[in-house]
Structures are given as C-alpha cells and as structure tokens.
Amino acid sequence: MAERYSRGLPKAGPQTLPKAAPAIIVAIALAMLASCTTRPSPEVLTPVRLSEAVHSETSPDRVSVLAATNRTPDGMRGGFGSAWAEKLTYEQYAFSVPSGRKDAAITYPTAKLDPERQFAVVERKQLPKDAFVQQALASVQPDGTVGIFVHGYNYSYQEALYRTAQIAADAKIPGAPILFSWPSAASVAGYVADRDAALSSRSELDGLVTSLSASGRVKRIILFGHSMGGFLVMETVRELKLQHRDAVIGKLAVVLAAPDIDVDVFRSQLKDIGPMPIPISLLVSKDDRALVASSFIAGERPRVGRLDIDDPFIEEAALKARLRVIDITSIKTSDGLGHDRYASLAKFGAQLASFESGRRSSAGDVGAFVFDAAGAAVASPFRLAGRVVRSQ
Asked: Which of 144, 247, 248, 384 is the most buried (most CB within 10 A)?
C-alpha cells in the first residue's frame, strides 16, 4: 500500500462504478446533460435596455466581466463558435443579474425581459489587447488579486460568460473577473474534440496570464479551472514551469473545481511543476456523476475530481504533494450531476472577507479538508482566503 502512494497520489486503476452496467450509467449521465434547459443562442450576447420602472427593492445587481477567447467569431449571430482562432479576441461586458436568487441556476433573457428573474447583457464592447489589459489592471482587488475563470467541457461562449457573471455577482467580487473561453464544441458528443481544443489553448492562456503578471500591481492571479478547464490550467502551469518562468509561477494561485484529469496524468503534471508557492487547491465531490461518465469514456480510469478525502491515504497523499483537497459534496448542485457545485460556492464569498473566528487558511495549509455546509466557506472562485474545517 505504501508503494501505491509513494509518489504522492494514488495510481490510476479501474474506477469503482455503481452496480449498474457502466454503459447504462454513461448513457443516463449524458442524457441528463443533453436534456438540460434549452441552451442559449449567441443572441443572449446582444445588449438590452432595462426599464427604468424596476422597483428599487428588487433592482437587479450589475456586474462587469472581461473575456478573452481563442474561438472564431460568428459574424452572422454575433457570438463565437467552436472553431479555433489564430489570435485572441478581447471583450468587456456589463450584466444585469437578478437579486434574491436562491441558487446558482441561470435564467437567460427572452424577448420579453424580466430583470427580476433573468440575467441579461446590458453593455458589450470589443477591446484591443492593450485596452483589455488596462481594464483588467483597473479591476485588480485592493490586495493585488485578479481572477481568471477557465470553463470546462461542453460549454458555449455565452454559457461560460453568463456563468462568470453569476459567480461574480454571488461572490460580490469588486472589479471585473476575467473569463478565458477556449473553443469547446459545446456538444455532449464532443468530449474528445474538447480535450484537443483545451490542449491547443495552452499558449493563449499562458499569454493572458503573462500579460497580467507583468504588472507590479498584480500580486496574485487566481487561476480557476472547472472540469476540463482544470486540465488546461494544469497544462499551462506545467508549460510555464518548463520554461522556467518562475516570476509568473510565483503569482499563481491554482484552484481546480471537479477537475476532469486522469490521476496518473495529474501525478505527472505535479512532478513537472513541483511545489507551488501557493498550494494547489482541489474542490472534489465523491458523487460527481459527470466524472463517472468521463472515467468510463477514458477506459474506467479515475478522475482527480472524485478523490475521496475519507480515505486516510488521500490525506497522506495531499500532504506529500502539498495540495489542498477540499470536499464540497455538502454543497447543493443544480445540474443533477453534482458537477457544478463550484458555482454554488460563490454565494459564500461575502463571508470570506471577514473570518476572524476560526483558523485562517494560509499558503502553508495543505492536506484534506471538508466544506462546512452550515456556513463556513473554505474557498470560492477568485478568492482563496477563508475558514476551513479539517476532516476528522
């Protein structure tokens, strides 16, 4: 057993699946993904004019989002497709976000807009790179932090953009978080194509991170990757390390939510990257059914996002690899698969600004932790400070 964990994480082996036939499980999981609410078209990116008659007590929140994408523009519908572009496009958005929402679900705008229930774009502007960087620097938080969100598999540009707006609104982030949108096929059947697209986007994400880190105003870049976006984040950090870009690495705080990464691949990435100045944080869930499907597609190989912190060897492995492995299974999910819990974490963001009671999370805290659903938040996108409860 000791040999199994000698390199810091358990070696990949056959994934333990529920008793039902694996093919049936995958079919059900993919059907659930495909049967979600109607997916938004690029038309939801068109700015709308809000009525001045909205009552002040129910007025929607207003948040800003910056976006960089290597998708090819869709000139006909005003959005971005799944084809790979040779250069990044930069945009700036302002959103109207309904206040008083109960969960992380997003209701997209319709022809008859209801701002008390629906999200909506109210401003949109394309920017040259220099102006984009200046806007990003203007959004740096008082402590020198800026956040970049990298979406996962099966996301369209507009879905990723609205998700970033939801996170920003719920976490009450000052300034504008940054979305990096790689050319996902936005198709349930596009898993392999998406993996290739993520790999092809390393240099573009590298360039974005490098542009921001060059400023002395930026002290920390929270690089937050969800699902397959976590794979892209790790590959980008690995590329930076192999290029000996230690000045950039030193500013990175990597957070991986439900990372869709093979355990052995992750171990290899960690070996190349080495210890990070700020330990990598993993947000995991034992019951993430989307990752069960991903595991089956990959030959029943386990995914990092389903690590079980109740296993004492996982805590030992986390300590050896200098990782924060945080179980967020207690968080409610809105997608039916347990794969989008990271989005619900954001609503605890306001609590993270003040955590005098309890033990503060620091760069030295590594090991296995559990989220306290009663109200103590451990992490949210774009913020790493927070209270943690050590797993018993």
From this structure: 384
